[in-house]
Design a protein that fits this description.
heterodimer; A: about 300 residues; alpha/beta; Transcription Regulator spoIIAA; Pectate Lyase C-like; 2 domains; 7 helices; 18 strands; about 30% strand; B: about 260 residues; 12 helices; globular
Chain lengths: ~300, ~260
Amino acid sequence: MSDDSDSPISPKDTDLDELSLETEAERAPDPPKSPSPAKKEGDIALVNPRSQVRLVKHKGKLHLIFPTTQKLPVKAHWTEIWEQLKHRLNAGEQFWQPGTPIELIAADQLLDTRQLQTIAEALAKANLDLQRVKTSRRQTAVAAATAGYSVDQQTHAMAVDLQQVADSSAENWSPPMYIKSTVRSGSEVQHPGTIVVLGDTNPGSTLIAAGDILILGRLRGIAHAGSQGNYTCQILALQMEATQLRIGEAIARPPESPPEGYYPEIAYMTPSGIRLARAVNFFKTHSFVINLESWVDSFS
Amino acid sequence: MSRIIVITSGKGGVGKTTITANLGSAIAQRGRKIALVDADFGLRNLDLLLGLENRVVYTAIDAIAGDCRLEQALVRDKRQPGLALLPAAQSRNKEAVTPEQMEKLIGAIAESFEYVLIDCPAGIELGFRNAIAAANEAIIVTTPEVTAVRDADRAIGLLEANDIKDIKLIVNRIRPEMVQLNDMMSVEDVLEILAIPPIGIIPDDERIIIASNKGEPVVMDTNLTLPAIAFQNIARRLDGEEVPFLDLMAAHNTLFNRIRRFFRN
């Protein structure tokens, strides 16, 4: 990546579906394209919603989906999964009714009785009632049965299939995710849709959204909008002090010297990279041009 | 119910152990019964700061393993009635104990003390999880440096994820003359990022280093120094008293400094 502040990175295939990963693996024996440094940058920026704990409403039912242990570069450790689950339950808006039944899709995560118990307790605190556990691991199935939950044990293929069912709703973005707390250093929030933060995001935090990112507070961490390659996506913050801004495959750093004063700003894609503008009049003066994949000032 | 407070920071070297020792002494001076627990297994320091090194016979590990009774492992401080220390083992590392064992041990201590202060090791690994396992409150220590604030922020996130919601902040090692000249983050800057209520602001003072080397916390000195007053104020605030914060800036807001600041900007 060049040192230029707002240098765009050439757009390329951003699809990180499990499917596309597999096809890429199959294509691997072919003469490989030499991995450019830009390619590496892109890899970091890509979102894999499968690597995080997710709470998804699908066909009127609530599912708690754990990441699969395969497909992940680094195995998700129990303490990490636990931490993500707690943050998800604490910070998110409770869009469900008290006592809503929830199904845990544990995929190939190995869970013992005590871990299942702690998950059930945490869910109960958030007014959710764990009833069913789906897993592809025999030990997890046995543990869940011992703890008194109904169990669906599937082969791995079936488990993946189930995950895809839940994921397909992400094709046209999941409903916006509301975070009503400070997003602190070290926490990474990924969401296959728009993220709205009612609070600050601190340095060291990362937000990755397939849609827009709206921060009603200070943006001080990293924000990545349109992570699946959608360049119409924007990042809006009441006070823009981001460590780094990313839209699609483009990356920008804010100017070194802090501005004179802060006002709500919006980050958007232009043919020459990511730009910032005052948010107030943005939509009056700018429009999106599809074949340029960027926003242009319609008055100039 | 006794209050179990973990003192943590994420980053090392910001003054957790010094604050545990001084705050513990200040609380004991108020006539409370308090136990200090050194959770930094493998790197035992708290006994040194309290000047109790030569009185340690058994350690927390011995108490957990059942090699001694809990009362035998607790070192009582002769100079400060009401204060007891549970020293960490130096020979074993942090993996020797599990969070469940710590919870049980500290639960047992809490039965006979009003306060339990836990000195947490640096980092966010098993040692941290052990230290916070039994706590129902936390005090975050940070210095006005970006690295310390970043790590404190991470530690707060982890505490919140572990259902410790009562978190207070101590900003340690403030140097008012540097803050005046905009060379150091101010307390307000730190609070703006961490967004948790402050319970104490402690000025940087070399007498704290002298006191550490003597093994006598500054609050035990008969001539009260500024940091000692700051510690006593924290102890009072913990007890629910409303105590205004020391105005550390006042002495440094001189005409000379204002002129210097004017010409720098």
